[in-house]
């Protein structure tokens, strides 16, 4: 199970995923990137909310991860901000994930991108979709916590 990365090393988070899915297990995977993509990630020009992970020929790929090129990108390359990127994991882990994804209702969702030992890693989760009433419960809990914090803040004054 992947250790939760430090917030100072985070590049991007997929907050929408936590709202739409229950996370069963979390995994950390490497990601194959081009040079211009790494530079854009350093500047924070990435969107992870529409991303999802698919299995093709026993390999994992992330689709929908959008990395916007910098204006100073090289002229001899044509950056594709929506291209499919390969995820790197051990073969045994991938086989185990394939077995679980084949079960009804499970999918692989990217949670965040972060730095680890000078490399960019993608945290993915084996997830099951939330029903509409579960989403309403999540909203209700969040609003309740905000109200409690608001009252506590006013009582301190």
TrEMBL record:
Residues 133-157 are annotated as: Disordered. It is found in: Cytoplasm. The keyword Transit peptide does not apply. InterPro entries: SmpB, SsrA-bd_prot, SsrA-bd_prot_CS. Keywords: Cytoplasm, RNA-binding. PANTHER family: SSRA-BINDING PROTEIN, TMRNA-BINDING COMPONENT OF TRANS-TRANSLATION TAGGING COMPLEX. Belongs to the SmpB family. Required for rescue of stalled ribosomes mediated by trans-translation. Binds to transfer-messenger RNA (tmRNA), required for stable association of tmRNA with ribosomes. tmRNA and SmpB together mimic tRNA shape, replacing the anticodon stem-loop with SmpB. tmRNA is encoded by the ssrA gene; the 2 termini fold to resemble tRNA(Ala) and it encodes a 'tag peptide', a short internal open reading frame. During trans-translation Ala-aminoacylated tmRNA acts like a tRNA, entering the A-site of stalled ribosomes, displacing the stalled mRNA. This is SsrA-binding protein.
